[in-house]
């Protein structure tokens, strides 16, 4: 079992390295590069689904910090496979309740899933676009409480968060 877990951890880490290399293609002007990105994230989401079938949510205690973070990123990028994203969200919610996953990461995954469902996000972590050089978030539930909710899960205030994306 331990060697199986080590193999899963190594696989998650390799998948996220491939994700990082290919991420620049997500919004490429070349349709072939966009398609390659979509295929890669779909393959990764399929595999994450299999890992969740076998092991539940891959927590840091189970697979190590790097591989757990990789699983989260793979779930984040499973935009075209909402079934996988929703399942990851449910399993991660339980892991956060058990103290074995990050509330901050869960907030990002929750927002991403909500946006993919066409609903308002909660924490303002998902950016819809840029207007006049400033990032604009997807619509957010109770925007006046967004920074309060962000603070509860360890995310900096929205203005501070978007400053890193601002185009001068």
Structure explained in plain terms:
This protein has helices at 2-22, 31-55, 60-63, 65-76, 82-97, 103-116, 146-152, 158-163; strands at 127-131, 134-137. Helix content is 62%, strand content 5%. The protein is globular, with a radius of gyration of 16 Å. The chain is mainly α. A two-stranded antiparallel ribbon has the order 1-2. The chain has 8 helices and 2 strands.
Return Rg in Å: 16 Å
Q: Topology as H/E string?
A: HHHHHHEEHH
Query: Per DSSP, what share of the residues sits in E-state strands of 2 or more residues?
Result: 5-15%
Give the number of DSSP strands.
2
Low-confidence stretches: none
Distance between the termini: 52 Å
Short description:
With 168 residues, this protein is mostly helical.
Write the layout of secondary structure elements.
Layout: H1 2-22, H2 31-55, H3 60-63, H4 65-76, H5 82-97, H6 103-116, E1 127-131, E2 134-137, H7 146-152, H8 158-163
Antiparallel strand pairs: 1-2
């Amino acid at each position: 079992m331990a060697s199986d877990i080590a193999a899963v951890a190594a696989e998650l880490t390799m998948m996220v390295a491939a994700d990082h290399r290919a991420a620049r293609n997500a919004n490429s002007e070349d349709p072939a590069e966009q398609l390659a990105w979509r295929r890669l994230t779909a393959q990764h989401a399929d595999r994450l689904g299999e890992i969740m079938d076998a092991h539940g949510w891959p927590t840091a205690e189970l697979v190590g910090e790097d591989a757990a973070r990789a699983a989260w990123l793979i779930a984040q990028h499973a935009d075209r496979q909402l079934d996988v994203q929703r399942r990851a969200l449910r399993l991660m919610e339980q892991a956060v309740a058990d103290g074995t996953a990050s509330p901050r990461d869960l907030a990002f995954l929750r927002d991403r899933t909500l946006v993919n469902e066409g609903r308002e996000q909660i924490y303002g972590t998902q950016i819809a676009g840029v207007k006049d050089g400033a990032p604009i978030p997807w619509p957010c539930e109770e925007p006046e409480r967004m920074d309060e909710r962000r603070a509860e899960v360890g995310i900096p205030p929205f203005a501070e968060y978007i400053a890193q994306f601002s185009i001068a």
